[in-house]
Amino acid sequence: MPYPSDRKYTREHEWIQVNGNSAAVGITDYAQQSLGDIVFVETPKVGAELTAGKTFGTVESVKAVSDLFSPASGTVTEVNSELATAPEKVNSDAHGSWMVRITLKNPSELDALLSAADYEKYVAEEAGH
Amino acid sequence: MRYLPKSPDDREAMLKAIGARSVDDLFASIPAEYRLRRDLKIPRQMAESEIVDFFRQRSRENGDGYTSFLGAGAYFHYRPVIIDSLISRGEFLTAYTPYQAEISQGTLQSIFEFQTMICELTGMEVANASMYDGSTAAAEAVMMAVRLTGRRSVMVARTLHPEYREVLATYATHQGMPLSIANYAQDGRLNLQELEKSITPETACVLVQSPNFFGIVEDIDAIAQIAHQNGAMLVVSIAEAVSLGIVEPPRQADVIAMEAQSFGVPLGFGGPYCGVIATREKNVRQMPGRLVGQTTDKQGNRGFVLTLATREQHIRREKATSNICTNQALVALMVNIFMTIYGRVGLKELAKQNLAKTAYAATQFARHGKVLFGGAPRFNEFVVETSEDPYAINSRLLGHKMIGGLPLKKFYPELGNSSLWCCTELTTRSAIDTAVGLVAESERSVRSAKEEVEEVTR
């Protein structure tokens, strides 16, 4: 599965796609594969303040509940309500299933994140272990 | 679950396999000065005949044949004999959570039925597979509301069982949840004006008990309105489950926390009792405890499994929804059998009998003494105020093989010589008449003593 180069990645397996001052956040295909069948996505409310590196929600699969870590700091402007009734979309299209949109507080935070190529290398190593 | 004892040979083999010389070797990491070098100071072992004799002697100390007027969160109801014969079956004799659905269908089905009946009784959509007791259920329900609202402070009715309040205070200290107490009004119900004044935008929930500690049915409609208008949740605690046979369930509540002891669980010092949490389906992911769900297997047959377990302690560790990581399976089974036997009609009849006995007793007491909070609707408890210290009256009642009401001074100093009396279907009319007679006698003697003093001073 190729990782799109139009976005950045975290070592906790979230992606962030910037569009002007706003950014969409989701989890990677590698993450959905390791989690298995996803049954519930718990997201913050519109207006919530996210901090880079801190948890902002959970994703629940039949196997486990995992925390979602925010790739950047910002305010939630929109929540993907489609996932409330169809969380399995994250399994079928992880990179197309954004969970929240935020307005970035400090865009320079993104510099610390991984590029698509680096992330691909990172998961290849992680999978190898 | 089997218990397999080990023989000295087994121990030897195991030690050999791991390369240890003795069992003491296994504790080598504990510094020698901290290890106990003598035998534990416990009595020597007893022969079976001695043990049987010991328990026979102790059981003679039990207060058999007493009529109890105690309620206050632990109720003396009839337990159909079938309960003990069924729960004593070997298949049920484990408190362990049935993780392995393949070998636990019977237990899982009984828990599923328990949850279903609790939902029907409470008017809620989901119920868990039981908690420790009513007090921990109330505290856990409050923490649910804190998580769901993102607010931290909690309004507690002073008419909630005082010991439930203590349990909640213990939880709250370590959870950073400020508690505030709302007092009761003249009629013994939560003071609505005070609630309205003290509720804030930081209030996560209002916690009330109904019927409350004084046995009075709270105005749940009005309380729900105040809570919800302020964006807070309403948690209703039910200590006397039999009340649900006749009192409308608090459907307006967001979470119901219940003590199910009244449903076939024997009275015991320290339990075990059976708590339950029931709520709306949208709150299910914040509900603590076990939940059994119905599903179909590969061949399309109906089956039962533990569900939504991914948030629990054995998987989520410190991030789990709750630190309660077990349920009261065997006690919940007693409750389940009780509900099945009584059914809808039986439970209503049972509740009516409780109501009728209590109404009779309260009327009789009111003729000779003072019954407080008379105006509000009550279930099977009521508060009697006497001129004499209730402990003195109770000690005379003991002579008639009767345990009187619970003196309330300890929990509500302002209520002075009041005590909380309870009647159930097992309280006989003659017992009520005797108790009323003794209280009337006490009132007369206090009155005549007072008159004598007045005569002397005149």
Give an overview in words.
- The complex is a heterodimer of chains A (129) and B (458).
- Chain A has four helices and nine strands.
- By secondary structure, chain A is of the alpha+beta class.
- Chain A has one domain (8-107): RNA polymerase II/Efflux pump adaptor protein, barrel-sandwich hybrid domain (OB fold (Dihydrolipoamide Acetyltransferase, E2P)).
- Chain A is globular and about 35 Å long.
- The model of chain A has no long low-confidence stretch (mean pLDDT 92).
- A seven-stranded mixed beta sheet of chain B has the order 2-8-7-6-5-3-4, sandwiched between helices. Chain B has a four-stranded antiparallel beta sheet with strand order 11-12-15-14.
- Chain B has helices spanning 8-18, 48-59, 82-87, 105-122, 134-149, 162-175, 192-198, 220-229, 313-316, 329-368, 390-399, 429-457, and strands at residues 67-68, 126-127, 153-157, 179-182, 203-209, 233-238, 255-259, 275-279, 292-296, 302-306, 370-372, 381-385, 402-403, 406-407, 418-422.
- The mean pLDDT of chain B is 92.
- Chain B is α/β, with parallel strands linked by helices.
- Chain B folds into two domains: 82-339, 3-Layer(aba) Sandwich (Aspartate Aminotransferase, domain 2), CATH 3.40.640.10; 344-457, Aspartate Aminotransferase, domain 1, CATH 3.90.1150.
- Chains A and B meet through loops of A and loops of B.
